[in-house]
Amino acid sequence: MSSVDPNPSMLVIDLRRAWGVVVLRGSLAVLFGVFALVWPGITAVALALVFGVYVLVDGVGLLMDAFRNPDKSNRGMRVFGGVLGIAAGLIAIVWPGITAAALAILVGAWALVTGIAEIAAAIRLRKQIQGELLLGLAGLLSAVFGVLVLLWPALGAAAIASFIGVFSLIYGVVLIALGLRLRKLASP
């Protein structure tokens, strides 16, 4: 059995489909960030519900990417991140009364795993597309945020909301920039 390079036209088709999902993920992160910053005193219950919906949708997006993307080398991490996102989202929706510290641990674990998956994807894509640096930057931001939240989970609900809001805004803007870059690269 011989190894065959992926068809370049297949990569372009995949980028055309992928850019919209990336921009959608970034837009949802920005919206979530604005919501968390505008109402920093929001209760842990409401924050858990909003986080749950966001992470559930993001997890579904990661799973879609894992199975639609012809590059199978990083599929396991994307599937793991997607399943973790869906599980974290469902837990936050079903049990919204969890404490701020428990929510922080959940957010931190999700951000760390998602960040590692995105860094791995950026490393893998560095020879296929330009602009993978943005994906690596998004992954680094996510991983650093995850570690910081895991180190200090006892922050108050308002502080967590503000911290999450700032992270979500920056992360969302980076994902939107990446999605637009992918769209530009996919254009004929």
Automatic annotation (TrEMBL):
Does Transmembrane helix show up as a keyword for this record?
yes
Q: Which UniProt keywords apply?
A: Membrane, Transmembrane, Transmembrane helix
The UniProt record lists the keyword Transmembrane helix: yes
InterPro entries given for it? Acid_resist_chaperone_HdeD (IPR052712), DUF308_memb (IPR005325)
Transmembrane region positions?
A: 18-39, 45-64, 76-95, 101-121, 133-152, 158-180
Q: List, alphabetically, the Pfam families matched.
A: DUF308 (PF03729)
* UniProt-recorded name of the protein: Uncharacterized membrane protein HdeD (DUF308 family)
Q: Which organism is it from?
A: Kibdelosporangium banguiense
